[in-house]
Amino acid sequence: MKSSGIKVAPSASRLTGSLRDIGYSFESAVADLIDNSIAAGATTVDVRINYDGRDSRVFIIDNGRGMTAHGLTEALRFGTKRGYERGELGRYGLGLKTASLSQCRRVVVYSRDPKDGHLGGLSLDLDFIETVDDWMVTYPDDADLEERVRALFSHSTGSVVVWEKLDRLLPAKNPDSSWARQKFLKVADRLQQHLEMVFHRFLAGNGVDKVTIRVNGEELAPWDPFVTAEEKTELVSRDVLDLPTSTGQLGKVAVHAYCLPARSQFSSLEAFDRAAGPRKWNRQQGLYIYRANRLVQWGGWDGIRTIDEHIKLARVALDFDTDLDDEFNINVAKMRVTMPHQLKKMLARSIADVCAQAGARYRRDQNRGSGEQLELGDRAADSISISNGAEVGLALKSAAAQSGHYEAFLEMAQLLRKNSPELAKQLGI
Questions:
Q1: For the segment 282-309, what is each residue's pLDDT rounded down to a tens digit?
Q2: CATH number for the 12-219 domain, one of 3.30.565.10, 3.20.20.140, 3.30.1300.10, 3.30.70.2740?
């Protein structure tokens, strides 16, 4: 029986070129490969950024399970047919290829066969694909590179990914210049900060198997957005929300809302500065969204409210597992999600509570610094002078009633009376 369809395979050279611009930064591309290492059971991952002019390379080395010859071929197939289990960091079967080619024109993968320890290798080369215009991988023919890779294996198992022809990291003109060298090596600092944040739970062994990650030989330290080791960090609320899915099942989203210490409450100025994060205090406030314990999006309130200097101490962790990928619409680079509209509504109360607490703590710290108040109890709220406070309170009550949220207002008023009794008294609530 003849097929009624017509086969229209895409042009390999055109499509692979287009996939380079899928949205990866250098840091997110490396992180995507580390996802693969963790999924393969690696306990150590080494990233080496070696500058050598136009022959510069990036190596990602792990001690995971390694791959058979068939597994190696599938790893370099666009849209591999392998499935992903719940909780596994992979998603689309594109990460290794798209992440690598977003930064380089040639990626070489070496891996030890878990059955017999044999070292196999395959390469995906855009220049070759453009020549043949076909979906093909080749065997590496660089004996010096293979010898170097063999020396990188410190375990009997594992894989090494090599990025070559780094056209996205090196300038097209003068890649051997001192300026090119400085620019190239600066990416190591940005990468370190990024990985310490994205994989902080794995680096700390917090609820997951511990993974050691090094960049150019330097072991990374976890950056905890919620500084839970600080004495004055306060867990304002915790909850587990039931999120309806397209399959009719209910998925679980865990929510932990934290109020961080004010500047004067940190154990040291260095700890306060480190807690600011890569994007600094104001832009690091907000939601921290974790997929299978890996941070995929951070900072900002996703339209629920706006960024505000006065609530910069508020940070909220959202955790979901891979069974909710469709609901969160996670992108290929695993850097962005789309917050389900229903979930935004469910989060409103928790966010309002933590922002109120963060605002009160911020103002107390500001007043203390300016000498307006001399003493602070550990959890006592301070008196804040507000002109016409009763009128403000009345206006808030009226607005809550008119908007149909009066019951929520009463709950917030009760919380305010508990945490900031003097302020509640001045507002007449």
A1: 999 999 999 999 999 999 999 999 999 9
A2: 3.30.565.10
